[in-house]
Amino acid sequence: MMVHPNMEGLDLIKKEVSDIKTYNLIYSIFELSLSPSVSIKIVNSKKHPNKTCYNTIIEETDLINAFEDCKSKIKPQNPYFIVYDFGYYNDQRNFRRLEALISYIPDSVNLKVKFTMAAHALGLSDIFNIPMLIEIHDISDLSYQHIKTECNNYHRNK
Length: 158
Description:
The chain is α+β, with helices and mostly antiparallel strands.
């Protein structure tokens, strides 16, 4: 399923993603609505704490706290998309960052929602030019360590 270019709310989400790519925001959480027609809306976003000094050394605890702040905005029973400027230290202790589109689709949502969200995840990844798509189905997997592992694997295989 292609994401319709005139989908309601898409322009606002594109602006948020642009703000993430320019370090104005660290993350944006948004959700898909299926009625009366498919639309998308911002649920929450956060200004980048290191906007003026993004090359500064950041403690991993600060990175974890920022991610936990994002996770605290999620209702475990609801599906969401999250675009995140994910910063982490790899196994060699080198700082890395990667823009990731996280598709959180709990197993408990109905099939229509699951299929629509999954189909839109691929389209949004293309529209936002974010090749790192992480699919999460259980809230326990929405953790800093899990996302770090996914990003680290992506960088290793690139």
